[in-house]
């Protein structure tokens, strides 16, 4: 709560650009924290590790869409999640996803040299 009647914007801070793979990674991490069927967990662990990101693994488009829907729902219910499950740190999950994707990108880059 801010103790004032009005505020003025001095300057806008642009939102960071987060790569699609990092957003999907984040969505999968969020979905895993909520409990999923074993098949999904297996697919998710393989996707996160970079072991198998093929369409045949779990019809990637559908799985990624479901994971992305999960993260959108998580964002919409952020206050509820914080109140009910204060042990889930969405910012830490996003940082984990971005760092992991950066690491995988570097690993692939090194393999192509």
Structure description:
With 113 residues, the chain is mainly alpha-helical. Helix content is 68%, strand content 0%. It contains 6 helices and no strands. Helix 1 (20-33) packs across helix 6. The model has no long low-confidence stretch (mean pLDDT 76).
Number of helix segments?
Answer: 6
* Strand proportion: under 5%
Into how many domains do the coordinates divide?
A: 1
Number of strands: 0
Q: Please, what is the average pLDDT?
A: 76
Structural class: mainly alpha
What kind of oligomer do you see? single chain
Report low-confidence residues grouped into runs of 5 or more. Answer: none
- Using the CA coordinates, give the radius of gyration: 17 Å
Brief overview:
The protein has helices spanning 20-33, 38-49, 55-58, 60-76, 78-84, 90-112. By secondary structure, it is an all-alpha fold. Helix 1 packs across helix 4 (60-76).
Helices and strands in order:
Blueprint: H1 20-33, H2 38-49, H3 55-58, H4 60-76, H5 78-84, H6 90-112
Helix pairs in contact: 1-2, 1-4, 1-6
Task: Give structural attributes.
single chain, 113 residues, mainly alpha, 68% helix, 0% strand
């Amino acid at each position: 709560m801010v103790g004032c009647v009005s505020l003025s914007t001095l300057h806008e801070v642009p939102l960071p650009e987060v790569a699609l793979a990092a957003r999907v990674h984040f969505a999968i991490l969020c979905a895993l924290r909520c409990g999923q069927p074993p098949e999904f967990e297996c697919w998710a662990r393989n996707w996160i590790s970079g072991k198998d990101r093929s369409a045949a693994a779990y019809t990637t488009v559908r799985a990624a869409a479901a994971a992305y829907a999960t993260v959108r729902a998580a964002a919409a219910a952020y206050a509820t999640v914080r109140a009910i499950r204060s042990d889930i740190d969405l910012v830490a999950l996003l940082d984990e996803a971005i760092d992991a994707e950066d690491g995988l990108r570097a690993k692939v880059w090194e393999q192509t040299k």
